[in-house]
Amino acid sequence: MNIYLTGYRCSGKTRTGKALSRITGWPFRDTDEELVKSRGMSIADIVHTRGWDIFREFEKETLHFVASGDNRIIATGGGIVLFDENVRLMKSTGTIVWLRVRPETVAERIAADPVSPDQRPALTSQGTLREIEEVLSVRNPIYQNAMDFSIDTDTLETEALCQWILNAVKFRPVID
User: pTM of the predicted model, to two decimals?
Assistant: First the structure.
């Protein structure tokens, strides 16, 4: 069983995933990082040169690659749930945890993150907060339908998020 962390940009998927990996001893994979590594281009460069449709195809291929293992913590790209095939794959190989976040929190985190321009190309022509609100209004119902569990990440510390997730998925460490 894998644990998939889904949610919008800057919801804490990578940070929480790395912490869960340390706690469980399971390998951590980030679909965005794996995609960038395998393609040798930043997400922004892929989107700019090849377009969103090609990026989404690359993302699907990357998900198939990381989902092929077992007992992994996997942080997904924010739009991975837009395709039913991706959701079916995640559900058949693990548990999907939606890390919910308010638009204002996303905007603050993006502004504080120096890698955002390369890793998070604009999704609309709106300004940052307006774009976040617009995209979340569309995606939140999709995240809701895809998830097995959800948790708000606006104010919880990483360790508290991890404990909540491990309790929700009934994680039991293997003791030799």
Answer: 0.90
